[in-house]
Amino acid sequence: MIPGIMSRRRFSELSEQDILALAISSEEDDARIYRTYAQRLRGDYPATAAMFDGMALEEDEHRRRLIDLHTKRFGDVIPLIRREHVSGYYARRPVWLVENLGLERIRDEAELMERDAERFYRQATERATDAETRRLLGDLAAAEAGHSDQAEALSAEHLGGEARGHEERTRHRQFVLTWVQPGLAGLMDGSVSTLAPIFAAAFATGDTWNTFLVGLAASVGAGISMGFTEAASDDGAISGRGSPIKRGFATGTMTTIGGLGHALPYLIPDFWTATTIAVIVVFVELWAIAWIQNRFMETPFWRATLQVVAGGALVLAAGILIGSG
User: Which fold does the domain 2-163 belong to in CATH?
Assistant: First the structure.
């Protein structure tokens, strides 16, 4: 994890040319996403599809203006910089995860896309020193804010009283980004990564106390590592994921809890009793992870179950086999 993080550049390290190149590639991606949404909705919601077509054309116009400014200031060669190259930069969900979830989900995603883009342009405007560049970035921030209003109007038109208020959606999204996602990542890492060392130690030694000590060390060590990694990976300025301290605390705490869950049973002196309870705890943890993914991340339950339970079972089996050998 650390090498991947260190290979990406922070937003604060980008030059004005880099920022323009990043904006160009982002506008290209967003235009493609809007056209995909339009195609998906055209049969049932032609007016909404037309709105997304118009938003895609506006993104094309934004890209053209950015390219013209880049050519004027830096020449025709545009550096290849994409979202995944910048630490903490907002990411887009793959379209195939969203397009089959209906109008409300697409509307929510479009609104979040525009607010992410607006935040990026406002941050970029503060970094720009060239007057023309600063003016263009400010204009684009205002345009993206206007798109957010369009998405909100779409909610009122098609969803009526069932639509959640903007403040509630923003609050829920911030809660998910700051606490749920980091906590889920920690719980998954703590629950799965500690399986092999704990059960290998258990079956290699048959000693419940030493197994508990191995589990305690693995859980606390993983919690500290994951907490610092999460806090250092993204300052939240561009991604909007919130305080790195909060995210690091959530990740580190849940990583430690995930590991301790199946280490604590080894405080029981009887080996097979402790091991049986530990195995039961493991499957409770894995099912909890699948439920959280389904509840907050909108991952289909069968897919989350297959990924988490099957993966965890393989790691558990590997630890037992290694320890028994």
Answer: Ferritin (1.20.1260)
